[in-house]
Specification:
The chain is an alpha+beta fold. It contains eight helices and six strands; from the N terminus they run βααββαααββααβα. The strands form two sheets. It has a four-stranded antiparallel β-sheet with strand order 1-3-2-6. A two-stranded parallel ribbon has the order 4-5. A hairpin with a 2-residue loop joins strand 2 and strand 3. The chain is globular, with a radius of gyration of 15 Å.
């Protein structure tokens, strides 16, 4: 079982410059990106949620998507675990007219990328930052491009799940509920 996303004090400090509804909206779209693209790749989602967490005296918002069963192709693992949340968050910022270099920096999901890289490394899959792609491996710029293409294609489903997450009790959806909402 894997849980995607994790709270870090650095993310809380970055969030201090944003109004709470925008933080929640960004996180909902981020988690919806993981959820929808994961389910479409054959992953089994247990739940997705956004919530507050306190560490070292700092309180901030984060989100998590938990999988009971996962893994399809290595590209799917990289896209779903490492890139889909950031791609969905960037897309919602662009759609709302709030995408700037600063907001793009704020939603960078290095924690997701690192998780994907750790999973791939454990499987012996080499990953480079850019082309050329290593033999039997992936190039991260291609992973991000694939995530962006899939987010664009599935935007209506991602939006439906994100908006439902924002109005769900405790900002939590079961995987079954998310699948119904996304018509998957």
């Amino acid at each position: 079982m894997y849980s995607l996303d994790a709270y870090t004090p650095e993310r809380q400090v970055q969030q201090q410059t944003m109004p709470l509804p925008l933080i929640q909206r960004g996180l909902a779209y981020h988690e919806a990106g993981h959820t929808v693209l994961g389910m479409l790749a054959g992953f089994t989602c247990e739940h997705t949620r956004i919530y507050t967490v306190t560490q070292n005296g700092l309180t901030g918002w984060t989100g998590t998507t938990t999988w009971a069963r996962s893994f399809a192709t290595y590209l799917d693992v990289a896209v779903v675990c490492g890139a889909s949340g950031q791609a969905a968050d960037l897309h919602q910022l662009a759609e709302s007219g709030r995408l700037t270099p600063e907001t793009a920096r704020l939603v960078a999901a290095d924690h997701d990328k690192q998780m994907a890289l750790n999973i791939l490394a454990a499987e012996g899959v080499p990953v480079s930052e850019t082309d050329p792609t290593p033999d039997g491996g992936l190039a991260w710029d291609q992973v991000m491009a694939t995530a962006q293409q899939r987010v664009e294609r599935e935007w209506d489903r991602i939006t439906a799940v994100a908006e439902a997450l924002l109005t769900a009790p405790n900002f939590t959806l079961s995987g079954a509920a998310a699948a119904r909402i996304a018509n998957i």
